[in-house]
Structures are given as C-alpha cells and as structure tokens.
Amino acid sequence: MCAAWLIIIVFMVGFPTLAIASVGSQTTNGSTGSAIGSNGLGDRTRAGDTTQRTNRVEPGEAETPEQLGELNIANDVTITYNNGNGTIAGSLRILLILTAIALAPTLLICLTSFTRILIVLHFTRQALNTQTAPPNMVMIGLSLFLTWFIMAPIFTQINEEAIKPFEAGEITQEEAIETGMAPLRQFMYEQTQKKDARMFLEISGTEWSDDMSIDDIPTQVLIPAFMVSELRTAFIIGFVIYIPFLVIDMVVASALMAMGMMMLPPTTISMPFKILLFVLADGWNLVIVNLVKTFY
Predict the structure, then answer these.
(1) What is the pLDDT of residue 63?
(2) In angstroms, how far is the first alpha carbon of the chain from the final one?
(3) Distances (CA, A) of 231 to 101, 196, 204, 218, 286
(4) Are 216 and 197 in contact, with CB atoms under 8 Å apart?
(5) pTM for this structure?
(6) What's the CA gap between 234 and 126, in Å, rounded?
(7) Which strand (E) or helix (H) includes residue 80?
(8) Per-residue pLDDT, 283
(9) Rounded CA gap, 82 and 67, in Å?
(10) Are 47 and 21 in contact (CB under 8 A)?
C-alpha cells in the first residue's frame, strides 16, 4: 500500500515537469541548442520560450502579499518566509493538520481528564460484574463528553489567547505554543501530587523545593507526573466504589455456604442485588457527578 502511494505521488509530481519540458522543446523548433544558447548555463533553467513558462510574475518582483500569491514557480510543497512575514503553502498546511489529527488522541489521553474518567467507569462496570454492560463504546463516548465538559473553559482560553491571535498574525508560532500550553500546564499542575512532581524532578536532576511554582517545573516533567497522579487518583476512587459491592458478594457467599450450596457461584446470585443497589442509590449520578467534582 505504501509503495502504491509512493508511485502515485512520484507520478503526480513528475508528470507536470515532463509536460512542461515537452512544451519547451516544441516551442524551440525541436532544437536543444537554441534553448541552451550561446551564453553558457544561464538559459538552461528555462523550459521553453518566456511565453510558455509557468511564471506569472518573475521571482523577486512581488511587492505585496497578493502579488506573492500569484507566483507559480513550483509543483511541490513550498514555504515562503521573509523576516517573520509569509504564509504556509496549502499542501503543507494540510500536512500539518493531518499530523495534528494523528497526535490528537495521544494528547487527549495524556493532557486531559480522560484517563481518570475512563478508569473509574471501568472499575464501576467491574464492580457491578455486568461484563460488557455498558459496552466499551458507550464508556469511551461518555468519557469523551465528560472530558469536553471539564476541559471546555481551558480549550476556550487556548482558542482566544493563542490560536486566534496566531491566525491573525499578531503573535509568532513560539509565542502561540507557549501561550496555548499555559492553561494546560495550570490544569495539570493543580491535579498533580507533590510527591510525583518531586520524583520526576529528582530523576531529571533538578533540585526540588517546597516553594517551587508552576513556572519552575518543566513541561517534560509535569506531564508524566500528572499522568501518574491521575492513575493513582483513579484507582483510589475505583477502590472506594468496589467496597459496597464487595460486601454484597461476601454476604451472598456466606448465605450460600450456610445453605450448603457451595457449587453455585456467588456472583450469579449477587449480581442482581448489586444492580438493585446501584439503581436504588442512583449510582450513575453519584459516580459521575462526584467524579467531575474531583477536578474542581
């Protein structure tokens, strides 16, 4: 599949070049010597007469962004950049967008509340012993929308302070990245436990102090510390959720042993009682609402 795509790309890039060379040879009356000329290598860069060249405007003559956009001197991806002023070609912009889309799932899992929510929902399903109810797609979808709800103010701040000014040309790319990471860093800093941040700082060779601020912790240290803290918090919440259902299992198992029904699996009898307890206690509301409140 990769080889087929490579052949297609080479053909798409190479065919216009061959076509231009063919036109150039026809316009010079079939003589390559007239195209080269007597002045050496200077005229070899032309594909034919100037009337058949692909340049709408001679390179170097553009004075405004509109005239710069009229240049048509290449059939591949190019970047026009001049002292901080310029634009990215459409093909390269598409490539960057596709790259960002490919990295989006990783960023979603590592830098947001998605991990904690999904693990807690998984523990809830395991405690109920309902196997595949709710199914994985429902749990992932619910986790995504809860993540969107929790992270919406942060995403809005990033859009207003980083993306829009960068698109308008008011700030540079480096400033946009730094400004956009600030709300995410603040969110991760508030959810990260000190012992995790201290551990990764010591591993990286940075001295830890109790009066360190968020600006003193590098991003490459803050992200893994945040992820470890999220895993610890999610497992603590899952343990708390497991306790009442474990009590039901123990009571059912004791009752079956007292009646001599040792061959009957306790989970077969306890599962309806777990579901009944969960429904009567409005379990989904308790779990989801209190889970969301842990981020505030």
Answers:
(1) 67
(2) 48
(3) 25, 11, 21, 21, 20
(4) no
(5) 0.65
(6) 14
(7) strand 79-82
(8) 87
(9) 14
(10) yes
The token duo for 50 is: 């100037």
CB atoms within 10 A of CB 266: 19
Q: What are the mean pLDDT values of the chain's consecutive 10-residue runs (296 residues total)?
A: 44 42 41 40 46 53 63 51 52 76 83 92 89 88 92 90 84 84 89 88 80 79 91 93 89 84 79 88 90 90
Question: How many other CB atoms are found less than 10 A from the CB of residue 105?
Answer: 10
Category of 171 on φ-ψ map: left (φ > 0), alpha (ψ -120 to 50) or beta:
beta
Quick one: tokens of 178? Answer: 């730094």
d(CA 30, CA 28): 6
- Residue 35, φ and ψ in degrees, nearest 5: -70, -35
Phi-psi bin for 212: left (phi > 0), alpha (psi -120 to 50), beta? beta
Cα 127 to Cα 274: distance, rounded to the nearest angstrom: 8
Q: According to the model, what pLDDT value does residue 128 have?
A: 87
Amino acid at the residue 57: V
Which DSSP letter does residue 295 get? T
Average pLDDT, the chain: 75
